[in-house]
Design brief:
The structure is a homodimer. By secondary structure, chain A is an alpha/beta fold. Chain A has a domain of 180 residues: CofD-like domains (Rossmann fold), CATH 3.40.50.10680. Chain A is built from 13 helices and 14 strands. A seven-stranded parallel sheet of chain A has the order 5-2-1-9-10-13-14, sandwiched between helices. In chain A, strands 7-6-8 form a three-stranded antiparallel sheet. In chain A, helix 1 packs parallel to helix 2 and helix 2 runs parallel beside helix 5. The radius of gyration of chain A is 19 Å and the shape is globular. Chains A, B: Homodimer. Chains A, B: Its EC number is 2.7.8.28. Chains A, B: Its cofactor is Mg(2+).
């Protein structure tokens, strides 16, 4: 079975671990969000790709969900001693090595997709991990500064990590997406898929950014395979992160049903909501999307594998 | 008193510490060798500049004479886990931060001289540290491979660090030197100097490389200030390192007198040899260079300061 998953960071990575456990023999291609990539200290950092790679490769810091386990922060301390920032982004020494290798390869002319493949040679994530695009796309967020009232457009990471989404996101713009091309293999994987899955990743800044690369949304809409998604909103709030802030920026309510309708019937064939959101099933089905309520909390590997099995069963039923 | 010192790595840095101790109020400009600079992992590494900066700024690993004290090697281990080399160059985590800052600034368009000044803002070496040039110069060494008999031209660092000069250096070429320009301030410092000193650095790959930048040798020869040097050869062998190997490549014997004559009377006004080489004094003086025999082992700070005082007295006497 060929499965294509559009993944952001922590939520997507943990779902993928459950999916691999549920169908260990499946041929899984992950299309990773690169809109939260950022250049720090002259190095190219790809947080979502690395979170998927480290999580599936056994190198992730399980407690925080991102970054490396058994990490130290000597380089970061030294950079701060030089007065070089930003200090709000927590790059550890082990993680730095990944960014150094990536930046060196990019500088030598390799596209990000080839670099990602090379990094995965070490991590053996058990999936084919593709960046959504080899072209540079960076999500920016328009905010009004709390103190000054000044309107600013900042990098998504500054909004997410430094400000912790503490102010409203007035607009979310994937800068460069319009000119970006899908990375080699992306459209082919979508066309050849037996199932396409939107895991419980952020619908705006993760899955939404991937869909903003011209050709990807169209390929998914045109694919013969069923497309099923899992709601990242449970009981009217994001399970993790601050998805409600960026959903508001695109005028979408933070409810399981609203996110399904935001993706829309041109993309989604099936949608899973949490059992606590069972009341949303009728609304989603009324829009023409097959919907089921199942437990959607990724509390452990088995619970997550069960979610993956439910998604695949729903795909089968949505054919 | 304005003193200009042409410095390589360990020998030059330790001499400078003695010089600062001997004349704490002197205005010292160091023209640093950048011919042993190397790009590693996409980062610009300047071993000699850093050795001077760390030594005078209190960050040096005293035992090995290069690199940072209290160092760890997490990044290097991770790079090795990615299969990315070279593994023979020992970059520690603290040291990596220096190279990351430097590379980021160079990438942003700052010349190496401005970057070096910015790094020194942190280290406060108490001297003005100038790279010999903002242009890229890399010393390469021609060798014949021990096993295969193959002739190869390799980076100086590979010859020095990986091979530990275990094969003959057949030629030493400062690639790029002919097209290089002295960094801003270099010629001005030489012209304004009261004394110019060649510390006991390597006469070929350290001081020799600096002199290979068009304009620098000529400026020193034309300077009004006396030029004095300290022999890095004591008792027919280098005090440190493998200077004999690269002296042989340029056809110079490893003796205190031969090195003085190699610099020549167009540059040198005075030359210090070690007391064990007192027999060389007559030969050097016969060539027209004032020469004295004094203890030249930098065993501790006071012994080194005494060497510096002897060099300044010799300069006075050579006027």
């Amino acid at each position: 079975m060929r499965i294509v998953v559009l993944a952001g960071g922590i939520g997507g990575a943990r779902f993928l671990r459950g999916l691999k456990s549920a169908v260990p023999d499946a041929d899984i291609t992950v299309i990773g969000n690169t809109g939260d990539d950022i250049h720090l200290f002259g190095l190219k950092v790809c947080p979502d790709l690395d979170t998927v790679m480290y999580t599936l490769g056994g190198g992730i810091n399980e407690d925080q969900g991102w970054g490396r386990t058994d990490e130290s922060f000597t380089v970061k301390e030294e950079l701060a001693a030089y007065g070089v920032g930003p200090t709000w982004f927590g790059l550890g020494d082990r993680d730095f090595a990944t960014h150094i290798v990536r930046t060196q390869m990019l500088g030598a002319g390799y596209p990000l997709s080839a670099v990602t493949e090379a990094l995965c040679d070490r991590w053996q994530p058990g999936v084919r991990l593709l960046p959504m695009s080899d072209d540079r796309v960076e999500t920016h967020v328009a905010i009004t500064e709390a103190g000054t009232g000044e309107r600013r457009v900042i990098h998504f990471q500054e909004y997410w990590v430094r400000l912790r989404a503490s102010v409203d996101a007035e607009a979310v713009v994937p800068v460069g997406a319009e000119q970006a091309k899908p990375a080699p293999g992306v459209l082919e994987a979508i066309a050849a898929a037996d199932v396409i899955v939107f895991p419980p990743s952020n619908p705006v800044v993760s899955v939404g950014t991937i869909l903003a690369v011209p050709g990807i949304r169209e390929a998914i809409a045109a694919a013969g395979a069923p497309v099923v998604g899992l709601s990242p909103i449970v009981g009217g709030a994001p399970v993790r992160g601050m998805a409600d802030k960026v959903l508001a920026a695109v005028g979408v309510e933070s409810t399981a049903a609203a996110v399904a309708l935001h993706y829309g019937t041109d993309l989604l064939d099936g949608w899973l909501v949490d059992t606590s959101d069972a009341a949303a099933v009728a609304e989603v089905e009324a829009a023409g999307i097959t919907c089921r309520a199942v437990p959607l909390m990724m509390t452990d590997l088995e619970a997550t594998a069960e979610m993956a099995r439910a998604a695949l069963e729903l795909a089968e039923a949505s054919q």
